[in-house]
Hints:
The chain is an alpha+beta fold.
Amino acid sequence: MLTLSPAVRIYLATGATDLRRSIDGLSALVHERFTLDPLSGHLFLFRNQRDDRLKILAWDRSGFWILYKRLEQGTFAWPADAPPDPVEMRSTDLALLLSGVDVAQTRRRRWYERVT
């Protein structure tokens, strides 16, 4: 599983992405579609049309990483296309998403969180 610093932000592309794209293609999407810097150290998630595969693009100060997950059964519970790109999520929500939990169907208890 991933261990992430609280400073790392996680962004999801809401629609389907052609996962034949590799590092250069995905980093171009981050720059053009999200208007964010792919070299920021944040994570960028993309899914395919069938919702059974995802790629995570990450920069670690020496190069890019691509993490790829393919489900043998079922689909990922991905946010709808309605919100504007990108959707930001917490690292705990990423862990839930990767383990098959639909984050939209869960209820977060009232908790103090500083808004920046």
